[in-house]
Amino acid sequence: MVKITAIEAIPTTIGYHHAIEASSGVLRAAEHVLIRVRTDEGVVGVGEAASRSFVYGESQESIVAAVKKWIEPALVGADPFAVNVHQQDLAWLAGNNTARGATDIALHDLRGKLLGIPSWRLLGGMKRDIPVTRILSMGSPEEVAVEARDARSQWGITSFKVKVGTGIDADVERVASVRRAVGDDAYIYVDANHGYTAESAIALMGELGAVGVNLVEEPSPAEDRIGRRRFAVHTAATIMADESAPDLNSTVREILDGEARAISVKTTRTGFTESTQVVAAAVALGARTLIGSQADGMIGAAAALAFASAFPSLAREPAELEYYSTLTDTLTVHPLVVRAGTLTPSDAPGIGVEIDELKLRRYRID
Ligand SMILES: [Mg+2]
Question: pLDDT tens digit string along 90-120?
Fold first, then answer.
């Protein structure tokens, strides 16, 4: 039986074309950690963790430490196929969301490679073209309109997420500007990252309804339950839970008593194993599921793409899969390319990525 022999955690830093702003923090470079699960058969599974200090309290250093101190010792000598068992064995470990999620993805990648089967197939799906969402940067109304128009004309992208939280008038102007740029048939939603009070969020979504925007991610602090309830009663908008639903238990809680009617599924933080449970819970409770981005690079995107292709509730929604376009380079040999606004998962085994060793040497910081 094949056995896990080691887990590597390699910190890599790749620059963004521009600094990424959201109301919760600023990202200047993609500070990720490549996870590689090695086996005695020489087959290697890969995943990519992303440090998000302001969401999960992780850094590149803490991800490496979590892998070396807790995750690797728990998995060495074990069967890489036993993903449910490994998830249970590591359930005691608090936080470290993307360290655990990326390791789980690397295990699933490994399963696919050992069997010679792509992950989307192994997870029970079929090959599908997944429509992608462009996450627009937080610029002026003119800047975001130009970016959105270019994304549509150059790549055929027809779904857009606009970051909001800079003030109602400015946000409405920015979203309306995007709507004019991409047309009435495009799908637009917004993400406030808890940036508004419930009252302001109600006012914002009241105005955005007029430009055809009815889905909002984390409009107001999720801890303000009364505010969320008031929001749900007073607007026609749907709340999507993201940072308030980082795992299975919180997903159930946000749907049952947090008024969320959509869930942002981020495989980088819940791996494939727990993401499968998140999707099942959301579907059972009648909530929409959309693939979200952990500001993923190409490896994280390939994983999320394979996952999206495996579940009908995800595959029918636009997915945040092309955030890699904000990065100046990639660690993979075969870059993903958006065609007609969609990405298609690879037929290669596992999540279908091959690491470019020269680039890894160039971008690793250890
Ligand atoms: Mg979000």
Answer: 999 999 999 999 999 999 999 999 999 999 9
| 218 Cα–ligand 1 center, Å | 7
- Distance (angstroms) between ligand 1 centre and the Cα of 282 equals 17
Spell out where 185-304 has E strands.
Answer: 187-191, 215-217, 238-241, 260-265, 288-291
Q: Domains of the chain: which residue ranges?
A: 4-117+356-363, 122-343
Question: Angle 243-245-250 (CA atoms, 0-180°, nearest 5)?
Answer: 140
Taking the centre of ligand 1 as the mean of its atom positions, its distance from the CA of residue 114, in whole angstroms, is: 34
Q: Which residues are catalytic?
A: 163, 191, 217, 242, 266, 294
pTM listed for this prediction? 0.97
CATH superfamily of 122-343: Enolase-like C-terminal domain (3.20.20.120)
What does the alpha-carbon distance between residue 126 and residue 309 come to, in Å, rounded to a whole number? 6
Ligand 1: distance of its center to the CA of 241 in Å?
A: 8
Which CATH code for domain 4-117+356-363? 3.30.390.10
Per-residue pLDDT tens digits for 129-158: 999 999 998 889 999 999 999 999 999 999
